[in-house]
Amino acid sequence: MQRIRKGDEVVVIAGRDKGKRGTVLRRVGPEHVVVEGVNRVKKHQRPNPMKGQTGGIVDKDMPIHVSNVALWNPQTGKPDRVGFKVLADGRKVRVFKSTGEQVEA
């Protein structure tokens, strides 16, 4: 089970974009995620008439390592670590380390 999933709200805790908050758009492999508005780069793109793309310089969100992001805890208003707990019915769920509350999925 993954600690950070698509759709989670995360905070960048290390690197150039430290302190920025955004939503995970997708996972790239087992250790990288793409976060909305984080690690944005300029890409020089050639026009492609077959796809209807115009040429020029476009902004693109690049992957960031999962160790550099932390899940946002809305109860405390701070980034938090994620742990796992097995419920009585046998389901494995994610929980916040600081409060022990279950992460809404």
From the structure above, extract its key features.
SH3 type barrels; 0% helix; single chain; six-stranded antiparallel sheet; 105 residues; mainly beta
Give a verbal description of the structure.
There is one protein chain. With about 100 residues, the protein is an all-beta fold. It has a single domain (about 10-95), classed as Roll (SH3 type barrels). It contains no helices and ten strands. The strands form three sheets. It has a six-stranded antiparallel sheet with strand order 6-3-2-1-7-8, with no helix packed on it. Strands 4-5 form a two-stranded antiparallel sheet. A hairpin with a 3-residue loop joins strand 2 (about 20-30) and strand 3 (about 30-35). The chain is elongated, with a radius of gyration of 17 Å.
What would you say about this model in short?
0% of the residues lie in helices and 46% in strands.
